[in-house]
Design a protein that fits this description.
6-stranded antiparallel barrel; Thrombin, subunit H; mainly beta
């Protein structure tokens, strides 16, 4: 049974994210947002983050990006989100990690 309170919109939006703490620095990791809602998002990256980590996420706003000019409900161009879960996923050519994130409302 589905636990989600809000419906998800499927996407293929390029993102960059980094840990939102001074100790980690602003080393942005490239990834993809695969779905989103007003309350959170699912992203895939080539590195994991621990549960509870706060990430800053920026969507790719270049004109050739799938995110540019598309109104996707729940898509934020820049946001803070908490990692609620992370898991390793199998990909053909690289290690990947799926992360479920909950947005912070400021």
């Amino acid at each position: 049974m589905e636990k989600r309170m809000l419906p998800r919109t499927h996407t293929q939006v390029p993102i960059a994210c980094c840990c939102f703490t001074i100790s980690e620095g602003a080393n942005f990791i490239q990834g993809t947002m695969l779905n989103c809602s007003p309350g959170g998002t699912y992203i895939e990256l080539d590195r994991p983050y621990k549960e509870g980590t706060i990430l800053m996420i920026k969507t790719d706003n270049r004109r050739d990006s799938p995110a540019h000019g598309n109104a996707i409900e729940g898509l934020r161009t820049i946001s803070l989100a908490e990692v609620k879960w992370a898991k390793a996923i199998e990909k053909e050519k690289a290690s990947q990690f799926g992360l479920g994130l909950k947005y912070y409302d400021l």
